Amino acid sequence: MNSKSTITVLVAALAVLSGAMGMTMTGAFSDQNMMTASTSNVAVGLMTGHLEIMAHHPNGELYAYRQFDNAVVDDGEQCILKLLFATTGPVSGTSENGRGEYASTGACTGVLTGAWDVIAIGTCTSCGAVETDVKLGTESTTNGGERGVATTKTWGNLTGGIPQIVMSKTFTSDGGDIGAVTESGLFNSTTVDGSGMLARNTFSAVTLADGDSITITWTFKVGN
Q1: Spatial CA neighbour of 140 closest among 125, 160, 124
Q2: CA–CA distance, 15 with 190 (Å, rounded to integer)
Q3: Which of 111, 45, 108, 26 is nearest to 73 (CA)?
Q4: With contact defined as beta carbons under 8 Å apart, do 122 and 181 qualify?
Q5: Domain that holds residue 74
Q6: What pairs with residue 199 in β-bridges?
Q7: In this structure, are residues 149 and 212 in contact, taking their beta carbons and an 8 Å threshold?
Q8: Which of 137, 85, 110 is nearest to 195 (CA)?
Q9: Which of 19, 40, 70, 152 is the most exposed, fewest CB within 10 Å of its CB?
Q10: Residue 177: inside a domain, yes or no?
């Protein structure tokens, strides 16, 4: 997976609708290529982000730090389009009015009624991040490593009026070691099975002994 993730959210959506709108767009969508549209009244929005990891010993000493651009998976991009242009509902099937507004099978994992504010960590050492990921390689489920809703969620605007959201959660080893944490993901449910994943990244191991903690911070901003 490309380490730098740039999602052309509205551009991709416009490409889907281009036939109906009589618009012509050429070029390729990828994590590092942005299409530009000169058509009047067309808004282009970029979603970019950052992942920060900080680990502390029980005495408060910072002993590990990681930071890099986040990586949004294909499934997350599909779900973003569904949220923008489809009614929420089952993951498969068509809507009651027959317009086919619900996500088709395989296009978007998880119900589209929850926010992507659930943070998870994992310990897989041989599971590199790829764009087709829909879950972590080995998600932590014991000793304080269980996924959960971000404990802090801060909305704001950067210089120039670019909006952003910062979501953070701290995991603390309790009753045993969490072990070598090597991955984190952002999901839309606290239930592991069937949840949708927006983003995932892997990193060099941060080992958590009993009492150690790790703080995962996901940041997203929209604008150019």
Answers
A1: 124
A2: 33
A3: 108
A4: yes
A5: 48-222
A6: 72, 186
A7: no
A8: 110
A9: 40
A10: yes
Provide the strand spans (E) within the chain. Answer: 6-8, 46-56, 62-69, 118-122, 148-149, 152-157, 163-172, 179-187, 197-208, 213-222
Instruction: Tell me the two tokens of residue 76.
Output: 């997350």
Query: What does the block give as tokens for 149?
Result: 């809703």
Please name the residue that has the structure tokens 């958590």.
208
What is the average pLDDT value for the chain, to the nearest integer? 74
- For 28-53, what is each residue's pLDDT tens digit? 223 333 333 333 333 445 677 889 99
How far lies 10's CA from each of 57, 98, 147, in Å?
43, 25, 30
pTM: 0.73
CB 161 within 8 A of CB 223: yes
Do residues 205 and 125 touch, judged by C-beta distance below 8 A? yes
Q: Is residue 93 part of a domain?
A: yes
**Residue 26 lies inside a defined structural domain of this protein:** no
How many domains does the structure of the chain reveal? 1
Residue carrying the six token digits 């029980």:
58
